[in-house]
Specification:
56% of the residues lie in helices and 3% in strands. The chain has 324 residues and is mostly helical. It has two domains: 5-175, no CATH class; 206-323, no CATH class. The chain is elongated. The mean pLDDT is 93.
Length: 324
């Protein structure tokens, strides 16, 4: 994939199901070390609409925030103790949730989902009540409640939340966003590879890739030319071209494109030299140069003039597959 390691990680989390996100964000460190999550965009409570049971039925696009609205994430990471900030020389609430500009909207969805699970599952109410009584919903209260109730108490709160099921109209937005990001990254990677190849060819490197693409292009043009010459409406400028000359004409085209893509001069002598050196045509240079002089105008006409049906040229514009 062309996405960065960071983007691949966030994409993976963003596209998880609600249940998998719930299990992921109950952890102390749900993100890979060093993963940065932007505090933006700002999303208010009023912009996110729910059905009263924890399902999101209307919202702006929320992406790269896989923890949004996940109850286990809110219970743990929005209730972390303050941390020491050296430049301020004091402890402040400075975690991801504290800096997030969608925190109020996230809290709205997360708490509604907690209430929904409590309404449907009596076995959840006891562990949740104990967690709250232990100070779990106080500012920075996660550590306090965890110390009092331990992993067992935390798991008793998490399990009913982990197996609940909620929907969100934001899910298609997330999928579309990451598809667009992947397409953009792939396009950028292809552009870099095209540039690298073009520079390599001019340094006479990776020439096998160039040769393979040109050979396929020559085969395609040979088929097209055979079809036109044998057809009922052969253009006048091709009526005098012997079928036996088609192969040579395509090889002259091959040599011209090789010269162009490797940065060589485009003239009769150079094209003839390339054709001989690349073993496309076995002929004395002086004789081939004379043939190239006659073939080049015909090749250019095949690429420019309308075809026998008055439409596009008989030979399409060539773009090397590896540098397209």
């Amino acid at each position: 994939m062309a996405l960065s390691d960071r983007d691949r990680h966030v994409r993976h989390l963003d596209l998880l199901s609600y249940q998998d996100k719930s299990r992921r964000f109950r952890r102390e460190n749900p993100f890979k070390s060093g993963t940065k999550i932007s505090a933006k965009p700002q999303i208010t409570r009023d912009e996110v609409h729910t059905d009263g049971d924890g399902n999101v039925i209307g919202t702006p696009s929320i992406t790269e925030k896989p923890c949004f609205g996940i109850p286990t994430a809110w219970l743990r990471h929005a209730h972390q103790p303050p941390i020491y900030v050296k430049r301020l020389d004091q402890k402040v609430h400075n975690g991801r949730c504290d800096k997030c500009l969608a925190t109020d909207a996230c809290k709205k969805v997360a708490t509604e989902r907690i209430k929904s699970v409590a309404k449907d599952r009596p076995d959840f109410r006891g562990p949740l009540r104990k967690w709250m009584e232990a100070g779990g919903l106080e500012e920075g209260g996660f550590a306090k409640a965890f110390e009092a109730l331990g992993e067992k108490g935390w798991s008793a709160v998490c399990y009913p939340l982990d197996i609940a099921s909620f929907t969100s109209t934001n899910d298609p937005n997330v999928r579309a966003y990451w598809q667009e990001r992947e397409d953009e990254a792939a396009k950028k990677a292809r552009g870099k590879e095209r540039y690298r190849l073009r520079q390599a060819w001019k340094a006479d490197e990776d020439l096998d890739v160039l040769r393979d693409g040109l050979t396929e292009g020559a085969k395609e043009r040979e088929k097209l030319l055979h079809a036109v010459i044998k057809g009922p409406d052969t253009p006048r400028y091709l009526t005098s071209l012997p079928v036996s000359s088609i192969s040579r004409l395509c090889n002259v085209w091959w040599a011209r494109e090789f010269a162009r893509l490797t940065g060589r001069p485009i003239n009769d002598s150079q094209i003839a030299r390339v054709a001989i050196d690349q073993r496309r045509i076995d002929m004395a240079h002086s004789s081939l140069r004379q043939m190239v002089r006659k073939d080049r105008p015909r090749i250019e006409k095949l690429e420019r003039a309308a075809g026998y049906n008055g439409g596009t040229p008989i030979w399409p514009r060539f773009t090397h597959p590896a540098s397209a």
